[in-house]
Amino acid sequence: MTTQQDKSGFAATDVLANEFEDGPDTVAKAEQSPDELQPFADLGLKDDEYAKIRDILGRRPTASELAMYSIMWSEHCSYKSSKVHLREFVAKVPKNTRMLAGIGENAGVVQVSDDLAVTFKVESHNHPSYVEPYQGAATGVGGIVRDILAMGARPIAVMDPLRFGAADHPDTARVLPGVVAGIGGYGNCLGLPNIGGEIVFDPCYQGNPLVNALSIGVLPVERLQKKEATGTGNIVVLLGARTGRDGIGGVSVLASATFDEEAEQRRPSVQVGDPFMEKLLIESCLELYDAGLVSGIQDLGGAGLTCALTETAAAAGTGMRVWLERVPLREPSMSPTEILASESQERMLLIVTPENLDAVLKVAEKWGVWATAIGEVTPAGEDGTPGRLLITWNDHVVVDVPPGSLADDGPIYERPLREPSDLILLQADRAETLPRPSTGAELRETVLRMIASPNLCDKTWVTEQYDRYVLGNTVLAQPEDSGVLRLDEETNLGVALSVDGNGRFARLDPYEGAKLALAEAYRNVVVTGAEPIAVTDCLNFGSPEDPAVMWQFARAVQGLADGCQQLGTPVTGGNVSFYNQTGAVAIHPTPVVGVMGLFADVTQRVPMGFPVPAKAGGDLLFLLGETRAELSGSEWAWVTHSHLGGRPPKVDLAAEQALGKVMTRASQTGLVSAAHDLSDGGLAQVLVESCLRYGVGAKVTFPAEGESAFVQLFSESAGRALVSVPLGHEKAFVALAAEFGVPCTQIGVTSEEATLDVADQFSIPLEELRAAWSATLPRLFGAPVLGGQPEAETAVRSVTLELTEPKQQPGGPIES
Amino acid sequence: MRIGVVTFPGSLDDGDAARAARIAGAEAVRLWHGDPDLHGVDAVVLPGGFSYGDYLRCGAIARFAPVMESIIDAARGGLPVLGICNGFQVLCEAHLLPGALTRNQHLHFRNRDQWLKVEATNTAWTNGFTPGQEILIPVKNGEGCFVADPATLDKLEAEGRVIARYVRGNPNGSQRDIAGITNEAGNVVGIMPHPEHAVEALTGPSLDGLGFFTSVLRALAGAAAGGQLAGGQQ
C-alpha cells in the first residue's frame, strides 16, 4: 500500500534513538553540530525542502524541529500538491453574504438567520480505517466533530460517506463491519445522530476503502470562535485527554516502515478514540464559550500539538513560549519530539487571558477534563515581524522557529498533469450499445436483480447501528434523500444535508463527474424542499505524483468550482485525500460533495415514501426532468455487464436549479406528498424505494411516445425527480413546473394494492421486492436484520428452556 | 408539577427527556450528578446515554453518584422514577429494579422503531395506557438484553410487574420479550426503548411516548388530591 506516510514516514523511534543519551537535541547542539546527518528523507522531506528548513533557521533543525517540519510540510497538512488547484474555489466563489468563515478555517460557517449560523465539513480518514477499521473510523468521527466544535458550534449530527471494495470480497467482510461499528461506537456514545451518508462498493476501493466523515454544528452568530493566539501574555491551555504515544506520525499515517520486523516497540499509528472524553470536551468548551472565557481555540487533530501551536501563533503573527514538560502524559517517558508529534485524540488548545484562567480551570474541573497551562503568547517583533515559537523541555530549548514557516510557508508544487492514456478508449466504449432486456419478463428479472445488488440494496443492516434520534431534532434520516434537522424549536428553522459522489462517473470524466456529484447532492437537498446554500467537499484521489491522477484532480476541482459558481453555492471548506491507491493502481477519482440547504419552516419537508394510507384513486405520480438514453457508468451497466465505459450523463445545472425552484415552491405550498431524487439505478430504484418505505404500491404507465420502458426504468439522466401529488393539486403542480420550464410527465398513481405494476411490462408484489432488496447485506455480513439472532440463541435459550409453565409468555430471543 | 432530569457525565438524552416533560405539561428541572439536592421535584427521569462512558458495566458507576443516593432514598419513599435505557441500567445497578441488562445478543447496537405491548398500567408512569395497547417507540441500545433468573422472571410476571413487551420482533434478545418492568410499589419504572423520542409528530415515529410523561402527571395530581399514587404506594 502506498500512503502519504511513504512521503512523510515519521517514526518516532528513528528520531529518538539518540535523544536520551545526553539529553534531547537542542538548539545549542544544533548550532554546535551543523554537519550532523539527519534522517530527513526517512521523514518524507526532499533534499530541497531540507535545505529550505536550514535556510529558514540559519542552522540545522533540532530533532524536534525536523519532525515538526516533516509533519507540517506533509501533503496532508500543507496541501502542497493541491493548493494551486484549490485556489479555483476561492477565485470562483459565488457572491454570498451568508458566509462567515470559509476555506482555511477549521470548518466553513454560514449564517442561517439573524441569530444563528451553521458550520459543516467533510473529511477523510481513509488509511487509518483500512489498517484498523474500528478505531480508524471512530477517530474519523471524533476529528471532524472537533473541527465543528472549534468554530464555536454545538455539533448536532454526523454523516458518513463510505466506499468499500467488492461486497463479497473477504477483506470487505473485515473492513466494513469494523468501520460501521467504529462510527456507531463513537457517534452513538457522543450523542450525535447519524442522519445519512453513502455505502458504495467497487473493486477499485479494495485496497483502499474510503471512510469520509461529515459533521454539522449550530452556533449563535456571536459565539463564532477564532484560532488566533492574540494578546501578549495570554495563557496557552491544553484541554482534554492526556497525551500518549498513540497516533505518532499519523498525519500521514502508516508507512510500511511502521510495520517492519523492528516495529514491535512502536505503537499503532492509528489513534485510539475515547468518545466519553470527547463528550466532556464538547460540554466544557460550550460552557467556556458561553461564559466568554476563550480568546482563541484550535482543535488537535492531525499533527497534534505541532499543528495547533504553529497555526494559532501564525494566524495572529504572535510568538509563543511553551514548556513542554507541563503537558500531561499517559507515559512519562515520552520525549519532546513524541509529545509534539502525538495525535492523541480529544484535545483542544485554548488561548485565555490570565484573569480568566481560574474560571477556565473551574469549568474543566466541573466536567472532569484535564486543563493545563502549558505556555503563553509572546509579542511579535518590534519591527512588526512575527514572533517566534520557543519550546523548552526541562530547560532544554528544543524548538525555536518562526511559526509561519511551518504553517504557511510549506512547499507548493505545480505537479505535472496528463490525461490518462486509456481515457479516450474508455470513453469510446459506451454502455448504450450493450444488450438490453426487452420483454416484460426480462425487465422484471432485471428490476429484482438490480435492487438486490450491493450498491442499491437496503442499507438497514448498517444504519440500524447508528443512533438517529438523539438530540430530538432529527426530522428525516437515512434512507431519505437528505438528513433533515430542526435547528430551532421556536421558529422551526431547519437544514437539509446530503453527501454524494460517483467514482465511476468521475473516472469517465472527472470534470463532469465532479459536477454530477454536486448536482446529485443539490438535488437530494431540493427534493426535500430545502434551498441549497453551501457546499463542502472531500476529494479522494490516488497519488499526486502520477500525472494522470493529478490531471483527474485538477479537472475535478475545476468542475466543482465551476458548478458551485453556477449554482451560487460556495465551497466553504473540505479536505483533500491523496495517495489512495494500492501499488500502481489508483482508486477511481472520487470527489464527494456535501450540500446544505435551508428550511424557513422545517415542518414543510417532503419525505421520499409514498404516503399511507393510499387514498382511493391514489396520489398522482409525476416525473420531473428529461429522460435520455444515458447508461454509461450506470449501475445497470455495472451490475448486468460489469461494464464501465462511455461518457457520464449530461449535467445541466440550470435545469437542476429550475427543478430546485419547483420543489421548494411545491413544499412551501404543500402541493406534493412525496419526492425522491433519481440517481443510481434510475427510476426503477426510486419506484421500489418509495413503494417500500411505507408499503404503498404504484401503477406506472409510460407515455407511448418517448424512450423505451427499459430506458425509462434504468437510465441515470441527471436533473430528475419523482413526486407524488395528492388528487386536486395536479393542475397547480403542472402549472408550477411549467412556470420554471421543468418537463413534467404523469407516469402513474399510487395504489392500494401492494404491488408495483408497470403497464404492459410486469407486476411485482411489494413482498417480493422487499425480500430481494433487504436480504443482501445480512447475507454478506451476517446477523439477520429483523428479529433475534440465531447464532447467539443458545446461551439464553438454556435459561428459557428451564421454564416449563405451559402458559409462559413467548420469551427469549426466538423470533417467529 | 416538576419533573427532574438527571445529567450524568455522558448522559445524552437528558435534553430530550426534559423536552418530553415540558411537552407533557410539566416543568423540567435539570439535576446534576454531583449534587445530592433533588430541588423539590415531584418525579425523576434517569435519561439515556453512556453515563461515565459506561466503560465498566453500564450504569455501574452512575449508581454511586451523589444524586443517586438521594434518588434511591426518595424512590423507596414513593417518588416516581423513570429510568430510560441507560437509566434502566442504573436502576438495576442500584437494586431499585431486579435483573440486569446485558449486551444485545447479536452484539450490535440497534436503532429501530419498535412496537411494544403495554401490560401493567397500574404504575406511576403507565396509568394512561390501556392493558394490551400497542405503541410504537424507538429503541436504540447496545446493551438492552434484559436477563434475570427464572424465579425472578416468574415473580415479575406473577405480580404483573412487566410494563411492556416487545412485539413484532425482539430487538435485543431480552428474556420473555421484556422491554420494561416496575418495582413492587409501581413508582419506579425502567424501560429500554425511548419514550422521549416519540413525543412530536415532526421528529418521532408516533406520539405514543408522551403517555409515560402524562401518566406521571396524572398520578401526581391524583396523589395531590388526596388519592393514592397509582401503583399502590402506601
From TrEMBL, chain A:
E.C. no: 6.3.5.3
Catalysed reaction equations from the record: N(2)-formyl-N(1)-(5-phospho-beta-D-ribosyl)glycinamide + L-glutamine + ATP + H2O = 2-formamido-N(1)-(5-O-phospho-beta-D-ribosyl)acetamidine + L-glutamate + ADP + phosphate + H(+)
Residues that, per the record, bind substrate: S124, H125, N126, H127, R146, Q271, E343, S344, Q345, S577
Domain Phosphoribosylformylglycinamidine synthase linker span(s) in chain numbering: 41-80
Pathway the protein takes part in: Purine metabolism; IMP biosynthesis via de novo pathway; 5-amino-1-(5-phospho-D-ribosyl)imidazole from N(2)-formyl-N(1)-(5-phospho-D-ribosyl)glycinamide: step 1/2
Top-rank taxon, per record: Bacteria
One of the Pfam families matching this protein, by short name: FGAR-AT_linker
One of the record's GO molecular function terms: magnesium ion binding
Residue sites binding Mg(2+) 2 per the record: D147, D299
GO biological process: 'de novo' IMP biosynthetic process
Subcellular location: Cytoplasm
UniProt-listed InterPro entries: PRibForGlyAmidine_synth_PurL, PurL_linker, PurM-like_C_dom, PurM-like_C_sf, PurM-like_N, PurM-like_N_sf
Record keyword rRNA-binding present: no
CDD domains: PurL_repeat1, PurL_repeat2
Gene3D superfamilies: PurM-like C-terminal domain, PurM-like, N-terminal domain
GO-annotated cellular components: cytoplasm
Keyword tags: ATP-binding, Cytoplasm, Ligase, Magnesium, Metal-binding, Nucleotide-binding, Purine biosynthesis
Function: Part of the phosphoribosylformylglycinamidine synthase complex involved in the purines biosynthetic pathway. Catalyzes the ATP-dependent conversion of formylglycinamide ribonucleotide (FGAR) and glutamine to yield formylglycinamidine ribonucleotide (FGAM) and glutamate. The FGAM synthase complex is composed of three subunits. PurQ produces an ammonia molecule by converting glutamine to glutamate. PurL transfers the ammonia molecule to FGAR to form FGAM in an ATP-dependent manner.
Assembly, per entry: Monomer. Part of the FGAM synthase complex composed of 1 PurL, 1 PurQ and 2 PurS subunits.
Xref: NCBIfam families: FGAM_synth_II, PRK01213.1
Name this protein carries in UniProt: Phosphoribosylformylglycinamidine synthase subunit PurL
Automatic annotation (TrEMBL), chain B:
InterPro entries: Class_I_gatase-like, PRibForGlyAmidine_synth_PurQ
A Pfam family this chain is assigned to: GATase_5
Keyword vocabulary terms for this entry: ATP-binding, Cytoplasm, Glutamine amidotransferase, Hydrolase, Ligase, Nucleotide-binding, Purine biosynthesis
Any one GO MF annotation of this record: ATP binding
GO biological process: 'de novo' IMP biosynthetic process
Hydrolase recorded as keyword: yes
Active-site residues per Swiss-Prot or TrEMBL entry: C85 (nucleophile), H194, E196
EC number(s) stated in the UniProt entry for this protein: 6.3.5.3, 3.5.1.2
Presence of keyword NADP: no
Annotated metabolic or biological route of this protein: Purine metabolism; IMP biosynthesis via de novo pathway; 5-amino-1-(5-phospho-D-ribosyl)imidazole from N(2)-formyl-N(1)-(5-phospho-D-ribosyl)glycinamide: step 1/2
Main localization (coarse): cytoplasm
Catalysed reactions, semicolon-separated: N(2)-formyl-N(1)-(5-phospho-beta-D-ribosyl)glycinamide + L-glutamine + ATP + H2O = 2-formamido-N(1)-(5-O-phospho-beta-D-ribosyl)acetamidine + L-glutamate + ADP + phosphate + H(+); L-glutamine + H2O = L-glutamate + NH4(+)
Annotated localization: Cytoplasm
An annotated GO cellular component: cytoplasm
Function (record text): Part of the phosphoribosylformylglycinamidine synthase complex involved in the purines biosynthetic pathway. Catalyzes the ATP-dependent conversion of formylglycinamide ribonucleotide (FGAR) and glutamine to yield formylglycinamidine ribonucleotide (FGAM) and glutamate. The FGAM synthase complex is composed of three subunits. PurQ produces an ammonia molecule by converting glutamine to glutamate. PurL transfers the ammonia molecule to FGAR to form FGAM in an ATP-dependent manner.
Subunit (UniProt): Part of the FGAM synthase complex composed of 1 PurL, 1 PurQ and 2 PurS subunits.
Name of the protein described by the UniProt record: Phosphoribosylformylglycinamidine synthase subunit PurQ
